Each structure stands twice: as structure tokens, then as C-alpha cells.
Amino acid sequence: MEMAETGIPVRVILDEKEMPEAWYNICADLPVPLPPPLHPATKEPCGPEDLAPLFPMALIEQEVSAERFIEIPEEVKAVYRLFRPTPLQRAYRLEKALDTPARIFYKNEGLSPAGSHKPNTAIAQAYFNKVEGVKRLTTETGAGQWGSALALGCKLFGLELDVFMVKVSYHQKPYRRTLMETWGANVYASPTEMTEAGRAVLKDDPESPGSLGIAISEAVEVAMKREDTKYSLGSVLNHVCLHQTVIGLEAKKQMEKIGEYPDVIIGCVGGGSNFSGILFPFMADKFAGKKLKAIAVEPVSCPTLTRGKYEYDFGDQAETTPLIKMYTLGHNFIPSPIHAGGLRYHGDAPILSLLVKEGYIEAVAYPQTEVFDAGVKFAQAEGFVVAPETAHAVKCVIDEAIKCRESGESKTILFNLSGHGLLDLAGYQEFLDGKLTD
């Protein structure tokens, strides 16, 4: 077989002792300054005191840090060891199915207890809140990957959790709710009657499918009203992208072990955390002149990077969050109820947005029928059924591999398998039955 001829194993494994000791902070190496968040009322740059009602001080410090590496606490590493380091896998069978000279690798983050990359930051955020005496967290979730990961983190560190789950996903993905409730979280279909923000939306549209922007408004409102409660966000913010860099740091070390380096790095983008996680540790090399193509993949129904504007906008619909400069479709935008619920967000991470604006990252968008077709192709070749979000990245990987077949180039492609799709089988069934629409 090909793997015997190349000498590159199907799975590249790191020992527990080789897990990163620190997260990588790309802010230390950005070629241009990152625009600061602005206070929603004054429009002046936010200070720590403005963020303190929502986040513990440790996370605020990480949010604004210029340190290149930030140490991972031992208590966090102890929980990471439940599933980290994750394997780097060579997609030999997909390469063969596509008849491509490209070498395709994927970091398998679907092997965490929650089935996605999200625990990398959920565990860290739960820990830092616990240390500062917080008793309860609130958050939003789309498809449920983030909500389930934070439910796990809160349970392991003894915190209570309220999750506002986008209503369309709440009904599309009932077993993600089951997962969250198994780990002790309270889950509500957003918009709800529990908050002023939710009641305002329902007054205008009683049948609202919800959006991440609405769910964020509800979670923030509840957190602001309780002294013992903080808010937790699963993507977009600097500290979230920071925690996810364990993915890329491990991948870099794994590729060094086999004498490889990616020509192309691909990831799906909703808020930007999983793509940032695998990409950012390689970006310092690109800033220094290394040739590296980075592709962010999103749905055509929520085309933030490909059709949005780069400007200051709110992170939520009720306009309670700080204004951040990012690619945005507008904080009132409510996307179509596609199955990739984790990609239905109107904005993107400020760092990622800046790098797209400056030309360091490319962006593409696909309709969900093509995405599910790519997911099926990957499952039939590699065996893993991936989440609809990840299937966006797979679609782009296949396109890039076909370009290699047509040109004869043997490029090394790396992508982040950010989550498994075993709780998304209703979407796959719709596709297989020919009922899925764009």
C-alpha cells in the first residue's frame, strides 16, 4: 500500500508528555495592530473594568495580552489528558478515491468527550472562572457543540450552567440537548420568554427560528443580573482562539516527526475558533515569508467573510456586547436554518477577520448539498462521519486535491476535523433521501 511505500503512518501519535505546555498568542506576531473592542455606549476602547461584569480577570488579561506564549495551568492539562494529544491522520483512502497526488492530513478533534474541538477552551474557561469564585456560567450554542463542551467543563470544575440554544438547532439536534443535560446543564430554546431580549424577538416574530446573536443577548442579560454568574463565549474572542492553538501546536510537532509541512491549511469558519486553532501556530512562519495558503470555509447561507463588511459591529442582536471590528453581515442578520448550526453566526473572530482583510487568509463559501456530498465521500473513504461544519472543510479539501490531480502538483494539505457527525445523522438522512435543500 501507499503508506508502506512512503513510510508515513496513517496516524501520527504524540505522547502525553509532548502535549503543549503553553498556548500560542498570535497577537505577539501580528503584522498590523488589532483594532480594540469599543464600549457599546461611549464607543471608546474597552478597559478591563468594562469587561469585568462578563468575564473573570484571567480571561480579560489573556484577551489583551501581547505575550507570545501563555502557560496552560496544570489543572487544565490534567483534564486535557482525557483526550489530548489528538492524532494527526493521513487520509490515504481519500487520496486514492480522488486519484490525487496531494497528501491529505487531518487533525482529529472529534475524539474528545464532547465530540468536537470545543472542550479545548471550555475546560480552560470553566477553570479560570472557578478559580475566581464564579458559581454559574451562561452561554449560547448553535448546533450544540459549544454548549455540550461547556457543560462538560462546568461539571468537571463544579459550576452550574445555563445554555441558550438556537431554537432551530434545539429541535433539529435533540441529542445534543441530551448530552448537555447529562452533564448537568440547563438548556433553553432561544428566543425564550425568560429575558427581555427574548421577549422582544418573540413579540415581533413568535415563530422566530432564533440565531446566535439572539441567544448571546439572552445569555449576556442573565449573566449581568447575577453577582455569582459570568458569561462564556465559545468562539470569536482572542482568548478563545488562544486556547484552541493546542490543535496547531500539536499538529506542527506531529508533521515535524514525519518530515512534512503543509502547503495548504483548511478549516470551516463560523466564529473562527477551530480554524484559528489549527492555523495560528503556523502563521508566524507565513509572516516570516514561508509559503502557506490558508483557506477559511463558510456556508453560502451565512457568507460572513465572502460577502460581509469589515467594520465595527455588535456581537449580539440586543446591542449589549462591546463593538468589535470584524467581518459581519449585521448583528440583526438571521441566516437560513441549515444543519451546520455552528456556522450560523453573523460575525467572525477579529484576529481572523484582520488576517483576511490583510490578504493572509482566503475565504470560500459552499451550499449545504455540496457540503453533505463531500461529507459522504469522506465517510465512504475514511470511515469517519464528520459534523456538517467539518464537512465544509472537507468540501474545500476535495476541491484542492482535485486541483492537484489536474495540475500534477503534490501538495500537502492539512485540515481540522473539528467534530464528528454522529449527532447530525438527521441531516445526512435528509441528504441521502434527496430532501436536503440549499
Description of the molecule:
With 438 residues, this protein is α/β, with parallel strands linked by helices. It has 2 domains: 2-19 and 83-116 and 246-432, 3-Layer(aba) Sandwich (Rossmann fold), CATH 3.40.50; 23-71 and 118-238, Rossmann fold. The protein contains 19 helices and 15 strands. It has helices at 2-6, 48-51, 57-64, 74-80, 92-98, 119-131, 145-157, 167-172, 174-182, 196-204, 212-224, 238-244, 246-257, 273-287, 304-307, 350-357, 368-382, 388-407, 425-432; strands spanning 11-12, 22-24, 69-71, 88-90, 103-108, 136-141, 160-166, 186-190, 229-231, 264-268, 293-299, 309-314, 323-328, 362-366, 412-417. It has a 7-stranded mixed beta sheet, sandwiched between helices. The protein is globular.
Largest sheet: 7 strands, mixed
- Ranges where pLDDT stays below 50 over 5 or more residues in a row are none
The CATH architecture of the largest domain can be named as 3-Layer(aba) Sandwich
Tell me the radius of gyration.
20 Å
Assign the structural class, choosing from mainly alpha, mainly beta, alpha/beta, alpha+beta, or little secondary structure: alpha/beta
What is the percent of helical residues? 40-55%
How many β strands by DSSP? 15
The CATH C-level name of the largest domain is Alpha Beta
CATH topology of the largest domain: Rossmann fold
* Sheet with most strands: strand arrangement: 1-4-5-15-10-11-14
Rounded average pLDDT: 93
Report the principal-axis shape: globular
How many separate domains make up the residues?
2
The termini sit apart by 39 Å
- Measured by DSSP, the beta-strand proportion falls in 15-25%
Query: What is the overall number of helices?
Result: 19
